Fold these 2 entries.
Entry 1:
Amino acid sequence: MRLKKLEISERVVQRLTEYLSILKEARKQDSEINSIELAKIMNTTSAQVRKDLSTFGEFGVRGKGYDIDNLIEIITRILGIDKTNDVIIVGHGKMGEMLSSNLDVLGEGFKIIGIFDKDNDKIGKMAANNLVVQDIRNIGEFIKNMKNDSNIKINMAILAVVKEQAQIAAEGLVKNGISAILNMTTCKLELDKNVKVVDMDISAKLQELNFWRINNTENNIDEKI
Ligand SMILES: NC(=O)c1ccc[n+]([C@@H]2O[C@H](COP(=O)([O-])OP(=O)(O)OC[C@H]3O[C@@H](n4cnc5c(N)ncnc54)[C@H](O)[C@@H]3O)[C@@H](O)[C@H]2O)c1
């Protein structure tokens, strides 16, 4: 499915991932779900659900709702996780190791096919997933060989280097054809607008959570900021 590069907002894509996990739970109980039920679990309106899903086509049957398996299949395809997507890890410190040794964290549809670091003590060592940590200086060659030898086009990376190195490391990745980066660092990467960056910051999420924890009654906040 080829989607036009248009009105699909980041928020809609985020919600798609939420729909997917809700639907996977829901299918344990039922084979159909309607927009009202979905909206209730998502804490949103049924109009929003219908609007989100209609962005990608007409899947529901009026008055009947959505076939859960069908919707899972469609969302899986929209998110591109109906096939395996190759990803590399750059920076194999505590965070990089946590990812390479807990592949479940990545979920279905992703496979780590290369791990890179710049530390000589780490380069050449075997990671938990049986990949050898490679020298970051060889990343261009690795990507080229993957393309030539196995027709694998690598364009997605998880960036887990120290913050101070993040911008330069990301620029190096982009030069070598990476166009999608999951940025585990707190560095605000400045890259070509064609490069998609998604920031992942547990600390920021905890701060957000903490705000809601200490303001946990609706009346605690006098004014909406
Ligand atoms: N996303 C989150 O929620 C979260 C949580 C904790 C840490 N972090 C961030 O993740 C990053 C890594 O943290 P960590 O605790 O694993 O640090 P770490 O120091 O243990 O590991 C960083 C690794 O990156 C390597 N490295 C540095 N520059 C590099 C480069 N240019 N190319 C390749 N490798 C390079 C280092 O050799 C090291 O192995 C930090 O930016 C940290 O702030 C994010």
Note: Helices lie at 10-26, 35-42, 46-54, 68-78, 94-101, 139-150, 163-175, 202-214.
Entry 2:
Amino acid sequence: MELDVDSTSEPMETRDPPASREKSRHKYHVQPSSLGGDILSRVGSPSLSMSEAFSSRSASLYQDEDANFAVQSERGCGITCCWSRTPRLRGGESYPLLSRRWKYTSNETPRSLSQKFRPRSFNDMVGQNVVVRSLLGAISRGRVTSFYLFHGPRGTGKTSASRIFAAALNCISLEEHKPCGLCRECLVFFSGRSRDVKEVDPTRVNRVDRMRSLMKSAETPPVSSRFKVLIVDECHLLDEETWSTFLNSLENLSQHVVFLMITPDVDKLPRSAVARAQRYHFQMLKDSDIAVRLRDICVQERLDFEQVALDLIAAKSNGSLRDAEMMLDQLSLLGKRITVSLVYELIGVVSDDEMLDLLDLALSSDTSNTVIKARELMRSRIDPTQLVSQLANLIMDILASKSEEDNSEARKRFSMRHASEADMQRLRNALKILSETEKQLRMSKSQSTWLTVALLQLSSLENSLGANDSKSSCRSAHEKDGDFSSTSSAAERESHKHIVPCSCGKLHQLGIERDWEATLESIWDKATQLCRSNSLKSFLRKQGKLSALSVNQDLAIAELQFHHRDSVSKAERSWKLIASLLQSILGCNVEIRINLVLYAPTSRCARLRKLSFGLFNCSRRIQQKKAKSSLPYGSSDSDYSDLTSEKPMIKDKVVLPESCHHRLEMVRALRSAEGNVLSMGTTSSHRSLLQDNAAPKTPGCGTESVKKEWESNHDCGFSQDWLRDQSATLCWRTPVSPRRKVPHERQRSPLVGWVLPCGTAK
Ligand SMILES: Nc1ncnc2c1ncn2[C@@H]1O[C@H](COP(=O)(O)OP(=O)(O)OP(=O)(O)O)[C@@H](O)[C@H]1O
Ligand SMILES: [Zn+2]
């Protein structure tokens, strides 16, 4: 079966392939109106009316059925598209399309600005000077090869350039500048009636036999032109076998055949194909080039505009002139002056200044304002995905110190406030978080929640980063006091920089005061929101609290607080689920520790309003599972039970003593008395820790007396068995020494007792 591309007849309706139908719809629509313009009248008419040619929408080379493949294709007459969506003329008149000053008459309605301002000569091409010069050089030097590959980002002019190049190859003008748009060949080409230039649909030719037919038909000499040009847009859609067939035949092609292949993604092509092509890379256009082109269009279209608005459009179009033109198109439809705020409003981005505000708040751990600002932005204008990407772009710009002179006042202020190396490090980390968040958002229904959580994490990580530099007097005070840090190993302190809940209610890391309670509250809130089991959710919200959090790159240790032993038991049973929820929010492995905080009811404890017991929950690290981490937990009974099947650490039978402090001492004494307790420590360091802590310090609290007391109170204390069971994982520390003067603020601190995981207690 031979494909005779030269035989032509009536123009026929193009049948767009499914893959390119969208594009074709957009690109090749014909407008029912007429052409005009001075230059048009100066030029002679081609034999057929140009309108007919344009309205033909040209011939498709291939039809669906194999049987009539060649027959149908014989009706092809040239490029498959109407080159410039030129309106159909009714009166048989015909005009050349190409003109530097070519204009639409008032009754012509091109579908879009992009369509209307499609380049028609190399001079119209923006920002691809090297490509243009090289292509012109090939023509003028007569060094035209048979296989060209145009690749690069979308909307940068590949398709336009391929058509211009095809026209230039056949232009018979003696002028250096080609295509002239006026010669016979140009007229035929731009009228869409060229029988020697065709656009080939890659999905229809994507079969070995069809490609073979195409190559064979290409061998027949051109009808009237010098070159037979075949343009294959989206050529990455061709299979390897089709490519092989093409490449095999390529060498035997005669000199007059030129293939122009176009793709936005050269990596999808077989290497052998790429290697044999003359490659032309179309780069992303510079913002400044785009802005100039937009200005040109605005002037021609008599649009009222602010130059900064055009600059903004250019900056937001990712180097694609088509994208920029489409934005301008939409704005022009509003019939208003094109201003910066209109651009922001229409394209759903927020101003850099507002973004900087948000970033500033997030980095400064101003939790409530961060949340308020993020919600405000999302409510009014921007969707979370867009916000994440805009924020990431902004951070990248800041890190790259992009165009200092273009910087707004807000950007300068931000840069001054965040200029140190540590700040840069924080921003790099923020980028990491945002990139993870972007992935999460794609799978999540509650995008705004995730985004808010991500913003809150920016500050959490910040704490982990700069803790070494911490000069916080408050933190030093903690360390000197031997507060919880005294129970932490040096290694743990090194690897986990705590968000330190200080007695004054603030975090003081990096010397910045933080509203830590609000941060923790918000994290807890988000975590529990993810829990779909309503009963567990309400239990965690009412009874539980995230009282502290320490984060390093890989692991977060979350301290949870409950006020009743039953709650502790329940929480213990659900520890896996709780850890999973927190893991989802924090995006890293989580260890949880469950603390019991009691309100001391007796006169002995009257001085202390609260006492807490830190119970180490042997929470193993949970490997992050990508698929699961993004989903809400506890969504069904089954996954709930799965997560809660772990044996509870605290048995129901445990009854806490009336006098917590006293009992605590008693327990320690008991441990000391029971030699086996020490031998049950998991590590030598753990044993020594137990030993240290187990020595009774209270006068009159000797082993015997404690035992007696224990026995007399066994119904309201810990069972010995239980204590033995737990001794490997349970460590105690005196909340407050009775002889030590308790500072007033410390009495108010909810975190009096801390416990180490055995593994890290060294
Ligand atoms: N370099 C450019 N110079 C002038 N106009 C351009 C340029 N790039 C894009 N445009 C504008 O964008 C529209 C689309 O361009 P074109 O189809 O040539 O891009 P493309 O790179 O082939 O994109 P795609 O890969 O999506 O097909 C053109 O009609 C034109 O208005
Ligand atoms: Zn010409």
Note: Residues 1-108, 461-514, 600-707, 709-762 have pLDDT under 50 and may be disordered.
